[in-house]
Design goal:
Elements lengths: L1 H8 L1 E2 L2 E2 L2 H15 L4 H11 L4 H12 L5 H10 L8 H20 L4 H30 L4 H33 L1 H10 L1 H7 L14 H27 L1 H14 L5 H10 L5 H26 L4 H16 L2 H5 L2 H4 L4 H30 L5 H29 L10 H11 L19 H4 L8
Antiparallel strand pairs: 1-2
């Protein structure tokens, strides 16, 4: 009985809590909890640096750039071991880089260029550790049963989601109580957890014993393997059944949005406090999980084209409800600003997650056998690239319409244009495959849901 109890205590989500798996779960948790600083960054740019919404949107775009070249990090990690390790050493380095970037934010940075540089470094830290830990998950899932592989993915996703919910709960109240610099300093300690748990990773050290010719031969073999992988990646991307859906994913993400302008309006005009916006982030984090559940429960067998068509049209219509908040018509309806914003964010987030899930499933289905991880990371980079372009287009449109930190006369027009532009990719739906998802979509959709 005692042995059985110990066995039960040593597993979670059906995964044995070995040092390796604990390290993987902790890295995913850190990625989720690093959202603690997002509200602090937004308020710092708005209140301390007095930037306009367009400038804030550009800096947000810069922070996403490291996510556009994720396959490169895999190539570096596989081909150039540090101190004899291909996984452990890069996790330590990523954690130290993240701690360094947020320490600079907490103590020294006082210009928009400094903020952009530090956020870029922090994003690079998370992106690199993400690739390294993803490769560890792939290595551990290889050769295992489908049940155990799915349980491992669930542990990763659950750890990241839990970190996101925790950070959402505390992000606003900490800014309200202690200020943005305090939050930056607290955030600087979180990446150190990644460095610490890296020493739990059991990895065979690449020794330098033996002849130099043997060492050179081993190094060259990794480089040749990486070159072959890149050649296979290029050949796969040139195939019409991969290139055309990838083009649609990019264009679907590359539509302008008005998030930065709405943040300035809700804080400067409506007086939303950091604590309230933290509660909104908590609600949207839970709503994101609800969206995943709705997709897996009811929509995983619906054709891809139909899901994109319906969710895009409904999403565009629901996005227009922000005009009600800007025009204060919600007050005429007897709904105060905070409750309207909370409900609006919840519904839009659920729909956004439902519409994004097919992107992950499609990306996974496009990957040929033998290069799943590399091509999946590339397709996610393409998706992230579209998001960056959409953010920059939104920043340009915000600038052209003259929406600033205290001028919102054309905010309604900005909202309408951004939501109508989301309909532009719909004529290209025929670029997507016509098949429907089978019952295996549940497992495929579990792959890297955290990339949202």
């Amino acid at each position: 009985m005692r042995r059985r109890t110990n066995s039960m205590k040593s597993s979670f989500f059906g995964v044995e809590l070995s040092p390796d798996n604990i390290a993987v779960a902790m890295v995913y948790f850190v990625q989720g909890v690093l959202g603690l600083s997002r509200l602090a960054v937004s308020f710092y740019l708005k209140d301390d640096l007095n930037l306009d919404p367009a400038e804030t949107a550009v800096i947000s775009g810069v922070s996403s750039l490291p996510w556009l070249v994720k396959p490169l990090y895999g190539f570096i990690s596989d081909s150039f071991p540090l101190l004899g390790y291909r996984r452990r050493s890069y996790l330590v380095l990523s954690g130290l880089l993240g701690a360094f970037s947020w320490s600079l934010m907490a103590a020294f940075v006082s210009s928009k260029y400094g903020v952009a540089f530090c956020i870029f470094l922090g994003s690079l830290s998370v992106a690199f550790s993400d690739v390294v830990v993803d490769s560890m998950v792939v290595e551990r899932a290889r050769g295992e049963s489908q049940s155990l592989s799915g349980s491992l993915q669930s542990l990763c996703w659950g750890s990241s989601a839990f970190g996101g919910i925790v950070s959402s709960y505390f992000s606003g109240s900490l800014v309200d109580t202690y200020g943005v610099r305090y939050v930056f300093g607290l955030t600087a300690m979180l990446p150190l957890l990644t460095s610490a748990v890296a020493f739990l990773v059991r990895e065979q050290r690449v020794t330098r014993s033996g002849s130099s010719a043997h060492i050179l031969l081993e190094t060259n073999s990794y480089k040749m393997s990486s070159k072959d992988s890149m050649r296979q990646l290029w050949d796969a991307m040139k195939q019409p059944n991969v290139f055309l859906p990838s083009l649609f994913i990019f264009l679907w993400q590359a539509t302008p949005h008005s998030e930065s302008a709405m943040f300035y309006f809700t804080t400067n005009m409506l007086g939303f406090t950091p604590e309230f916006l933290g509660r909104v982030k908590l609600v949207t984090s839970i709503a994101s999980l609800l969206g995943v559940g709705i997709y897996n429960g009811f929509l995983k067998s619906v054709s891809l084209r139909k899901i994109f068509l319906v969710t895009t049209i409904i999403g565009s219509a629901l996005g227009m409800t922000q005009v009600i908040l800007v025009s204060r018509f919600n007050r005429t309806l007897g709904i105060n600003d905070e409750w309207f914003a909370m409900g609006d964010s919840l519904i839009i987030t659920v729909l956004a997650q439902v519409s994004f899930m097919p992107v992950l499933v499609l990306a996974a289905k496009l990957c040929p056998e033998g290069m799943e991880a590399t091509l999946f990371a590339t397709l996610m980079s393409i998706s992230n690239g579209g998001s960056v372009v959409g953010g920059l287009m939104g920043a340009g449109l915000t600038k052209v319409l003259g929406v600033t930190k205290d001028r919102f006369q054309h905010l309604t027009l900005l909202i309408i244009l951004c939501n109508l532009s989301s309909l532009l990719p719909l004529p290209l739906l025929r670029l997507l495959p016509q098949d429907t998802f089978d019952s295996g979509a549940r497992e495929v959709s579990d792959i890297e849901m955290k990339s949202n």
